[in-house]
Design goal:
By secondary structure, the protein is an all-beta fold. It is built from no helices and eleven strands. Strands 2, 4, 5, 6, 9, 10 and 11 form a seven-stranded mixed β-sheet that branches. A hairpin with a 3-residue loop joins strand 9 (91-100) and strand 10 (104-108).
Length: 118
């Protein structure tokens, strides 16, 4: 059984930084795209950043220049470095993986809360 476990969320002041991590475990043959999404209260879940196995990245316009996504393929882990955080970044952040295990499917983490407030 595959699990995605996130860590690193919390409360930070505007202008501060946080680093999120998401580790995949279980029967894993390969992971294609990994990414981060977020959902604020009353809003739909939206893409934040994604990264392919080869390292190609894509970011939402709202986070370009402030957030950096990276991954360690050997550890089946994806990271999100978030700098210059703004109150509008407040949301639950979810990890996603397009993963080939016993089955090939999309997996989601349980979510981690990020709150940006003074």
């Amino acid at each position: 059984q595959v699990q995605l476990v996130e860590s690193g969320g919390g409360l930070v002041q505007p202008g501060g930084s946080l680093r999120l991590s998401c580790a995949a475990s279980g029967t894993i043959f390969s992971i294609d795209v990994m990414g981060w999404y977020r959902q604020a209260p009353g809003n739909e879940r939206e893409l934040v950043a994604v990264i392919t196995r080869g390292g190609t990245t894509n970011y939402a316009d709202s986070v370009k220049g402030r957030f950096t996504i990276s991954r360690d393929n050997a550890k089946n882990t994806v990271y999100l470095q978030m700098n210059n955080l703004k109150p509008e970044d407040t949301a639950v952040y979810y990890c996603n993986a397009d993963l080939r295990g016993i089955v090939h499917m999309q997996y989601w983490g349980q979510g981690t809360q990020v709150t940006v407030s003074s």
